[in-house]
C-alpha cells in the first residue's frame, strides 16, 4: 500500500474506519445500557430489579503487558503507555501501540491503536525485567501499578497506517520518532 502525504485514503480504508466507528458505537450503547441497568435498582412496574457490574477491565492482572515510554528528542519521557501483548489465532505474537498523532487529530482511541505483529515487524521481548512492577499515573492523576512481562525492541520502522505521520523505532521499550 502506498500513502501520499496529504493525499486521500482508499475506499477500503474508509469503509474499515466506518465499520470500526459503528462497532465502537454499538459497544458504547451496550455499556450505557449496562450502566443504566445497574443504576436502576428497586421495584419497577415489571418487578424487582437488581444488577451489578463486577469488572470494567477487559484484561486481568495476569495478562502480559509492556510499558512503552514515548520519548522527546532531548531523551526525556513525554508520555508513558501500557501495551498489551497477545498471541493471534495463527500463533503469531504481537503487541499494541497507540498513535499520539491520531489522538491529537481527534481520532477515537480505539481507532488510534496499531497492532504490531511479529510476522510483519520483527520484534523481541527481553524478559530480564519480567515480573517487575512499574508505577504509572493515569490522566486524572491517580497512580496505578503494572506488572510488566519485559521490554520490547523493534529495529524496523513502525508506521501508523491511519495518518502516515507517526513513524517510530522501539528500543528497550522506548519509542523514538524517526
Low-confidence stretches: 53-59
| Shape annotation | globular
How many domains in all? Answer: 2
Largest sheet: 8 strands, mixed
Q: Please identify the structural class as seen in this structure.
A: alpha+beta
Rg over CA atoms, rounded to whole Å, is 20 Å
Which range does the strand content fall in? 35-45%
H and E order:
HEEEEEHEEEEEEE
Distance between the termini: 20 Å
Strand order of the largest sheet: 6-5-4-3-12-11-10-7
Oligomer: single chain
Q: What is the number of helices?
A: 2
Q: Find the count of extended strands (DSSP E, 2+ residues).
A: 12
Fraction in helix: 10-25%
Q: What is the average per-residue confidence, as pLDDT, rounded to a whole number? A: 81
Write the layout of secondary structure elements.
Elements (H helix, E strand, L loop, with lengths): L10 H29 L2 E3 L2 E3 L15 E7 L5 E11 L5 E6 L1 H5 L8 E5 L6 E3 L6 E5 L5 E5 L3 E9 L7 E5 L2 E4 L1
Parallel strand pairs: 3-12
Antiparallel strand pairs: 1-2, 3-4, 4-5, 5-6, 7-10, 8-9, 10-11, 11-12
Structural notes for this entry:
With 178 residues, the chain is α+β, with helices and mostly antiparallel strands. The chain folds into two domains: 1-56; 65-177, no CATH class. Helices cover 19% and strands 37% of the residues. It has helices spanning 11-39, 100-104; strands spanning 42-44, 47-49, 65-71, 77-87, 93-98, 113-117, 124-126, 133-137, 143-147, 151-159, 167-171, 174-177. Strands 6-5-4-3-12-11-10-7 form an eight-stranded mixed sheet. A two-stranded antiparallel ribbon has the order 1-2. The longest helix is centred in the N-terminal third of the chain and has 29 residues, at 11-39. The chain is globular, with a radius of gyration of 20 Å. Residues 53-59 have low confidence and may be disordered.
Amino acid at each position: 500500500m502506498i500513502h501520499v502525504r496529504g493525499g486521500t485514503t482508499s475506499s477500503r480504508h474508509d469503509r474499515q474506519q466506518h465499520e470500526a466507528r459503528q462497532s465502537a458505537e454499538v459497544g458504547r450503547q451496550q455499556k450505557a445500557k449496562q450502566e443504566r441497568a445497574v443504576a436502576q435498582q428497586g421495584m419497577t412496574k415489571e418487578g424487582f430489579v437488581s444488577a451489578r457490574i463486577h469488572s470494567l477491565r477487559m484484561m486481568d492482572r495476569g495478562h502480559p503487558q509492556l510499558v512503552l515510554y514515548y520519548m522527546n528528542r532531548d531523551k526525556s519521557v513525554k508520555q508513558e503507555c501500557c501495551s498489551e501483548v497477545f498471541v493471534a489465532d495463527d500463533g503469531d505474537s504481537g503487541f499494541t501501540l497507540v498513535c499520539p498523532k491520531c489522538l491529537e487529530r481527534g481520532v477515537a482511541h480505539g481507532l488510534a491503536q496499531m497492532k504490531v505483529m511479529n510476522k510483519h515487524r520483527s520484534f523481541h521481548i527481553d524478559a530480564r525485567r519480567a515480573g517487575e512492577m512499574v508505577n504509572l499515573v493515569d490522566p486524572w492523576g491517580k497512580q496505578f501499578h503494572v506488572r510488566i512481562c519485559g521490554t520490547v525492541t523493534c529495529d524496523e520502522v513502525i508506521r501508523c497506517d491511519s495518518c502516515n505521520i507517526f513513524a517510530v523505532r522501539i528500543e528497550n521499550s522506548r519509542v523514538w520518532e524517526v
